[in-house]
Amino acid sequence: MITWKEKLTDQIDPEWAREIDIFELQLEQRKKDELDEKIFAETRLRRGIYGQRYDNGQRHDGIRSQELHFPSGDLTKGPETMWDAPGMQRIKIPFGGLTAEQMDVLADLSEEYSDGILHVTTRQDFQLHFVQIDDTPSLMRRLAAVGITTREACGNGVRNVTACPLAGVCRDEAFDVTPYAEACSRFLLGHPDTQDFGRKFKPAFSGCQHHACGLVSMHDFGAIAVTRNNNGRQERGFELYVGGGLGAVPHQAKLFDPFLPEDELLPTAQAISRVFARLGEKTNRARARIKFLVVQLGIEKFRELVLEERKTMPEDPGWTSYLSDVSSYREQPLKESHSLNGEQRPEGFEPWYQTNVYQQKQPGYVVATISLPLGDLSAWQTRRVADIARRFTGDNIRTTVEQNILLRWVSEADLPDLYRELQKIGLEAPGAGTIVDVVACPGTDTCKLGIASSRGLAAEIRKRLAAKFLEIDEAVKNLRIKISGCFNSCGQHHISDIGFYGTSRTIGNRKVPHFQLVLGGKWTENAGSYGLAMGSVPAKRIPDVLDRITERYVRERSQEQSFQDFIKQIGRKELRVMLEDLIEVPSYDVSPTYYSDWGNPREFTIGDMGTGECAGEVVSLAQFDLAASERLVFEAQLKMDDGDYGPADQLAYQAMLTAARALIKTEFLDVSEDPNTVVEEFRKRFYDNELFHDKYARGKFARYLFHRHESPSQEHTAEQVHRLIEEAQLFIEAAHACNDRITDRQAASLSSPPALGTTS
What architecture is domain 162-321? Predict the structure, then answer.
């Protein structure tokens, strides 16, 4: 039998083929225990292979709601090793650019190696779930044969280079950033100077400053196209930013250069990589992103170091060769353009045309957005989309950070026929780029870090909004909703108009799924501002929260008032009062539905401690103190909004101290309120012995308290206080989780029968 390696030998770039051969050898070495697991873990991550979660027991909504049959393994139990059950394969798609042939191959791979579903990510990648690791070398070779790599899709390297999916056709862009994004991706891929980072490095390109485009402000390395006039000659360059990032605590990127000439793009990217590799944190992963290095050094010092590095680097022919075709780069439309005529249009066409069609700067051509529920696309739908592209647009296909697919260079006259084809495959839904187009990370479906079901909640919200889409007020229609399953911002909740991230609370003896409500984020202006958590709400009340906020916005906003300005006008205090009744959780006996997550009927609990004889719920002293800490961090937000940054800083710090004291009291120690004593006791009783550490964060949130205690800020700014409040909120969430573990452990010891030979 001919292997894929033999079959595709002449179709794969020799360098890529060699890399895959090496990975296959390493995989065999690991199986024989000839390669250290820690080294192999980083090796497989750099090839885009993740472990995934199996304890959720079902898929949520959309395509994955149908009954599926997976390759092997009990999906209700987590695998012990990578060999016991399938994992996730991420596939890099630079700037989201695809061809019809590539889509056909992706469809084949999803059927043969996965569950028949392709998932578009918020970085324009694809992910396949339930992939056996033994199949990955063949999968990689088949991708490489059509020009796709999985190298550095994960791990401590340069992740997918994203770009505005409208680049080249946008009416407001300075110039087309597509060839620059592609050049950057090719130049940095596997580059020796990008192999020693402490954490990942995410680049993005945008063609203009004001739209969402490439979301430059939230990236490690972000470039916005700009031009200038030099003696009558127009020059291209980039407004370059560094040090942005979301994650648990988001950072706004800092301006590195207002005009970086285009021929300096690649050498500067290399110089930044060298400085990051040399000076970036390596030991403490929680502070290993470049954003922390920029904050530590300050942007002026960081810029100085990079410019010095640039002077010392030997000339690299790649700096120019990768950009040699930029001036001649042009996308070619498949057909001549014709305007939309009076042809009879199919039912449902008009609302789809209003939301899913963008008029290109090239007359007679449009971009058609295919809205994908939760970013999912079945294999047969993928093939049909490829066929539709062959008929109407050729290879002008792009994925988006909003988890959709764009068909570019569609002749306007073809839109009715294109819409009919989408109807045949169930992808004709309107609402792309509107409030209906909810973005969500995988959450508890497959992610090991997921706390609450982001996909389940997103599916419920999308279903409700889609049912009344035509009646939604125009003021609300263009708001963005983004949902993450945990504090990490994979669903980009920080930059949405209305964001949510998953948490949990213990009510009585049971766990209740919750989501933190995040308001104040800004999707436009390349992720212009980040929101802050307003409070934790039971998962089952989130749709009510959404209704209440949007209805009040429609009812009370002044003419043309933005949602961000309206939220600022109302103020956090009033918003909290408005939502107060939705935060309450009834007892399990009164309403058991609160105690399960969206899309999952199972009770959301780790263990059942039993019910006491008293009619009321048992609330521990620690829970009261943790609630007090939440009140303090909320008060810090109010002070920040008023511009009182010093008091806001102190309140956020006090909130962390209060949460730490709450945990200390669980050990029956009535500790004083002296900060030094609280921090010392917390460190000794919960950090040094790793009681505060969960499986994934590993105590990093404790270091937020230590850092603020040991190094209080001497200058209070809006950005510094915003960050501290975010850190305090995360510390409190970690304290809640720690208290739950303590309570569960105590309950387990009480319920266990005494060992033989002992007395109870």
Answer: 2-Layer Sandwich (3.30)
What tens digit of pLDDT does each residue of 115-127 get?
999 999 999 999 9
Cα dihedral: 548, 551, 556, 558 (round 10): 130
User: CB–CB of 556/567 below 8 Å?
Assistant: no
Alpha carbon distance, N-terminus to C-terminus of the chain = 66
Residue with tokens 């104040």: 520
Q: What does pTM read for this prediction?
A: 0.83
Between the alpha carbon of residue 229 and those of residues 186, 256, 397, the distances in Å are 29, 21, 33
What pLDDT, on a 0 to 100 scale, did the predictor assign at position 751?
A: 56
pLDDT digits (tens, 9 = 90+) for 371-391: 999 999 999 999 999 999 999
Cβ-based burial of 14 (10 A; exposed 0-12, middle 13-18, buried ≥19): exposed
Quote the CA–CA distance of 360 and 240 in Å, as a whole number: 26
Buried b (16+ CB within 10 A) or exposed e, 75-88: beeebeebeebbbb
Whether the CA torsion 611, 614, 620, 625 is positive or negative: it is: positive
Torsion of CA 739, 742, 747, 750, to 10 degrees: -140
What is the C-alpha to C-alpha distance for residues 343 and 341, in angstroms, rounded to an integer? 6
What SS3 state is found at 555? Answer: helix
Q: Which two tokens stand for residue 166?
A: 């409208």
Angle ∠(177,182,186) on CA atoms, nearest 5: 150
Contacts of 74 (CB under 8 A, 6+ apart): 54, 85
DSSP 229: E
H helix and E strand count, the chain: 24, 22
Domain ranges in the chain are: 4-144, 162-321, 349-424, 434-615, 619-760
Distance CA 47, CA 152 (A): 6
* Burial grade of 318 (CB within 10 A; 0-12, 13-18, 19 or more): middle
Using H for helix, E for strand and C for coil, what is the string for 154-217?
A: CCCCECCCEECCCCCCCCCCCCCCHHHHHHHHHHHCCCHHHCCCCCCECEEEECCCCCCCCCHH
Q: Which CATH class is domain 434-615?
A: alpha beta
Intrachain domains 4-144 and 162-321 with the same fold: no
Specify the pLDDT at position 223. Answer: 97
Residues in the chain with pLDDT < 70?
53-85, 605-621, 668, 695-698, 746-760
The predicted structure's pLDDT at residue 54 = 59
CATH 1.25.40.180 fits 349-424, yes or no: no
Could you confirm whether domain 619-760 is CATH 3.40.1390.10?
no
Q: Which residues contact 657 (CB under 8 A, 6 or more apart)?
A: 673, 675, 678, 679, 705
Q: Is 611 exposed, middle or buried (0-12, 13-18, 19+ CB in 10 A)?
A: middle
Separation in Å, CA 706 to CA 32, 702, 710: 43, 7, 6
Cβ contact 594:538 at 8 Å: yes
Rg (CA), the chain: 26
- The tokens describing 533, both together, are 């958590």
- 4-144: CATH number: 3.30.70
Q: Can you give the pLDDT at residue 357? A: 97
> What pLDDT, on a 0 to 100 scale, did the predictor assign at position 760?
31
User: Which amino acid is present at 99?
Assistant: T
